[in-house]
Amino acid sequence: MPKAPPPYPAEFREEAVRLAKSSGTCTAEIAADLAISYETLHTWLKQEQVGGGYAPGLTTSEREELRELRRENSISRGRSPAGEGEGTGRAASSRNARAYTRT
Length: 103
Prior knowledge:
Elements: H1 10-22, H2 27-33, H3 38-51, H4 60-76, H5 90-99
Helix pairs in contact: 1-3, 2-3
């Protein structure tokens, strides 16, 4: 599976959001001018609204904390975190389901 490209620098994201909020230009045009996808800029704008308390949802730090807590919970239950080691994914679930199925 190909790795995701490295994230954009924070300064770039902040400037893109500032441009989108302050200029009268549509978001798609700003995204094209900055050579980023519309969806990326839209996501940054939404994160800005959530972080500022203007929209419902988890902030970036809350999302990271939730991810870490889920990983710790998974480890404490004796399972490897998702994506690590053997026994994760759909194939493992199918094997386990077959093992417990009566014939």
